[in-house]
Amino acid sequence: MNTRPETLIPVIGVITDVRLDTPDIKTFRVVTPDGKKAFDHRPGQCAMLSIPGVGEAMFSITSSPTNTEYMEFSIKKCGCVTEWLHQAEVGQQITIRGPYGNPFPVDDEFVGKNLLFIAGGVGLAPLRSVINYCRHYRSKYGTIDIVYGSRSKEDLLQYREIIEEWATDEGINVHLTIDREQENWDGHVGFVPNYVKELGFDTNKTAVLCGPPIMIKFTLEGLRSLGFEKTQMYTTLELKMKCGVGKCGRCNVGSKYVCKDGPVFRFDELDELPDEY
Amino acid sequence: MFKSSLNSINEIFAKIAENATLYLPSDNKDGNAVYTKWENGVVWSNSLNTVKSPKDFFFPQVEDMMAFKTEGKNIEINDIREESEDFVVFGVRACDVRSFDILDRVFLVDPCDSYYANRREHGIIISVACTKPSETCFCKTFDIDATNPGGDITVWKTEDSLYWSANTDRGRELLSKLNLEECGDEAVNEQKAKTEAILNKLPLANLNTDGFGGDKTDALFDRPEWKTLSESCLGCGTCTFVCPTCQCYDIKDFNTGNQVIRYRCWDSCMYSDFTKMAHGNNRLSQVERFRQRFMHKLVYYPANNDGIFGCAGCGRCVSKCPISMNIVKVMKTLGGND
Ligand SMILES: Cc1cc2nc3c(=O)[nH]c(=O)nc-3n(C[C@H](O)[C@H](O)[C@H](O)COP(=O)(O)OP(=O)(O)OC[C@H]3O[C@@H](n4cnc5c(N)ncnc54)[C@H](O)[C@@H]3O)c2cc1C
Ligand code: SF4
Ligand code: SF4
Ligand code: FES
């Protein structure tokens, strides 16, 4: 028997809760069969989930490391693995391996800073981990602003948590927006990048952007025009992944592997890489 | 330094094979040299090198990794990894010895790939110095010495003799079991000088790496020549499959009926669906995929590995590409080599 440690061999995870968050995103709670967390992680890191015979796919761990009981994943239905997961019930076992990737610098560069989180759609998943981590260690950070947008009210991920917990915290400002007017919505209407410009943030903040590439592009431009430097803005990249450990050769941008050197990058670091993401 | 007569090679092979499975290049019925398990009657090939590289020994083309059984909502994960048996690979050329170093730097760095490490720990490499390098060889470009190939044991071949020298502890241990006669290194030096003279006259002898290296992303990435270079590329992946240093792999599941086997297999960055995912594909055209293969070998790999290039100059892609495109043409076009 080859008994060397092997990261590609997963462990078993049990789905203990499934929440329909939006029409196409479900949030899954996962623990090991003996009821523990499968492994520790840092905010922004990911895990490979799989169903044998269906496939493996990478997801951000959306729960905060400060949650010592379970991990959560918010998963958007879009292909084989994700569709299979969407029909899974509580008690279903899956496999899980990780953690993979680098975390957000919550214990160094973020400390003492005012934080501005900007997310679009399922892009909230990785940010939720950071936001809840920062809420847990609240005194280590300055003000927290959260701008979050989706197509419609129904498409806003973790709506209840945002309204009931984040928005009621002192020192946290939540700015929600949806793409088009709809009934029973009296909040802001418009795309995230425009909303960010309208809100006109002070540059004394560290910004974190997560969402579809087009949203990132225009939000970045907006923040730049407000005077933000690339060195004070972070984002995450998403490329096709198989191994998660920089060996299968799939997720590189230039000499960096997104699974290992990312997915978290500061915008000035991205400038060093070829434009292929 | 130890010496044996060329005539006694089969006795030596038999001795090596007593304790470990021995593989060596032998001609198949089509006359192509392929690594073959040695047994009485298997003849060591005279060809310069094998068609396929020896990377299979450590990183097989297809490899079962684990098995799953599912019952209702439950899953059972079975670790099916076995400890490899000891084996010896004889006849490895200098370029391919370098390729193991190139692969080690991918698979053995943390988190170490246990499948690869297991085979690497059990495999002894006996290299053979080249005497007739061919016109597609350009190992020298990457500072590889074809007259001094390395591995656990190095063997030099002359008209009638073989000369043996161990480079590692396990090489010394194996060599001591072969009971060869000790000798000086004059004959080897003479042979080296002859090969050196051929190497210096090879058509690709002057190919150099100026213009490439870890810091050349900006200088090379947007060069317009990628378009013409990649124009006829079929995306067939032949270059990546014959290459001893190409490391990309896929992980897949196969349902046998009563269990699921998760296996890995070689993949190719030249394939159109290699990076295709839910929200798109970051390498949409063959230009981008073609560029990736060569930028990886000549820029990205050295950037991550102390300047060592990811090509060993073996020339396999040069002789096997159906449209005669290859890394040499890329280097000549983009590096100002001529
Ligand atoms: C670092 C990282 C973090 C991520 N975090 C999250 C997260 O928190 N939440 C989330 O929902 N998602 C996340 N993703 C995305 C997630 O990994 C993908 O949605 C997931 O891999 C899709 O898997 P699937 O098997 O369901 O889709 P697939 O079956 O792979 O299909 C996805 C789409 O691509 C197409 N496709 C894929 N392969 C092929 C092929 N070979 N040929 C033709 N078409 C193909 C399919 O038609 C389909 O439209 C993350 C990805 C990364 C890299
Ligand atoms: S790129 Fe071509 S010449 Fe270089 S190691 Fe691979 S097959 Fe050999
Ligand atoms: S370079 Fe040649 S061998 Fe490689 S994928 Fe293109 S056509 Fe095939
Ligand atoms: S997922 Fe394999 S190298 Fe990044």
Strand order of the largest sheet of chain A: 10-9-8-7-11-12-15
Order of helices and strands of chain B: EHEEEEEHHEEEHEHHHHEEEEHHH
Question: Which regions of chain B are unreliable across 5 or more consecutive residues at pLDDT < 50?
Answer: none
Number of domains of chain A: 2
Which fold name is given in CATH as the topology of the largest domain in chain A? Answer: Rossmann fold
Defining key terms:
heterodimer, A: alpha/beta, Elongation Factor Tu (Ef-tu), domain 3, Rossmann fold, seven-stranded mixed sheet, six-stranded antiparallel sheet, B: 338 residues, alpha+beta, eight-stranded mixed sheet, 11 helices, binds flavin-adenine dinucleotide, binds iron/sulfur cluster
Detailed description of the structure:
The complex is a heterodimer of chains A (277) and B (338). Chain A has two domains: 11-100, Elongation Factor Tu (Ef-tu), domain 3; 114-236, Nucleotide-binding domain of ferredoxin-NADP reductase (FNR) module (Rossmann fold). Chain A has six helices and 15 strands. Chain A has 277 residues and is an alpha/beta fold. Helix content of chain A is 19%, strand content 31%. The N and C termini of chain A lie far apart (40 Å). Chain A has a seven-stranded mixed sheet, with helices on both faces. A six-stranded antiparallel sheet of chain A has the order 4-3-6-1-2-5, with helices on one face. A two-stranded antiparallel ribbon of chain A has the order 13-14. Chain B is an alpha+beta fold and 338 residues long. Chain B folds into two domains: 2-199, no CATH class; 217-335, no CATH class. Chain B is 32% helix and 22% strand. In chain B, a hairpin with a 3-residue loop joins β8 and β9 (161-166). The mean pLDDT of chain B is 93. The structure holds flavin-adenine dinucleotide, iron/sulfur cluster (2 copies) and FE2/S2 (inorganic) cluster. The site of one iron/sulfur cluster has 13 residues of chain B, from α10. FE2/S2 (inorganic) cluster is lined by residues 241-244, 246-251, 257, 259 of chain A.
